[in-house]
Design a protein that fits this description.
Elements (H helix, E strand, L loop, with lengths): L2 E7 L11 H4 L4 H14 L2 E7 L3 H14 L2 E5 L8 H10 L3 E5 L21 E4 L4 H15 L2
Parallel strand pairs: 1-2, 1-3, 3-4, 4-5
Helix pairs in contact: 2-5, 3-4
Bound molecules: 1,3,4-trihydroxy-5-OXO-cyclohexanecarboxylic acid.
Length: about 150
């Protein structure tokens, strides 16, 4: 049966394309969404793709993903490094989660080295730019289809 995955994006990721392109590349979030939709279609999966600048909205969407989908891909942006609420939402809902970051957060400022998401995620993909989303979808579907 076709799997459904939710892909959630946190604060400032709506600015991709113009936001610090030397770090995040020049691909817009709309282009990333298009690529994710094409990749999911090719792999017989349904996708919900969203972005919010608000922590509470992301909490609501994680809870919704746990009810309506088979797995979650999350780029929590800066909330990665601050949000106990997102950590708790993933843990409480039990949704299988792959963490993704465009940049290699470990090569950057020290405050980006800690993630509140990693302890409750199956795994993390970072440093591959926009392509990381396809890598994350591939990893998630591989896990879902082998269970
Ligand atoms: C990011 C990395 C975070 O440290 C940063 O706050 C972001 C984007 C990434 O995709 O590389 O907003 O999650």
């Amino acid at each position: 049966m076709a799997k459904t995955i939710h892909i959630l994006n946190g604060p400032n990721l709506n600015l991709l394309g113009t936001r610090e392109p030397e770090i995040y590349g020049s691909t817009t979030l709309a282009s990333i969404e298009d690529a994710c939709r094409a990749f999911c279609q090719a792999h017989d999966a349904d996708v919900v793709f969203r972005q919010s600048n608000e922590e509470g909205e992301l909490v609501n969407w994680i809870q919704e993903a746990a009810v309506k989908s088979d797995g979650l891909i999350l780029n929590a942006g800066a909330y990665t490094h601050t949000s106990v609420a997102l950590h708790d939402a993933i843990k409480a809902s039990g949704i299988k989660t792959i963490e993704v970051h465009l940049s290699n957060i470990f090569q950057r400022e020290e405050f980006r080295h800690h993630s509140f998401i990693s302890p409750v995620a199956t795994g993390m993909i970072c440093g591959f730019g926009a392509h990381g989303y396809e890598l994350a979808i591939s990893a998630l579907l591989n896990q879902l289809n082998s269970n």
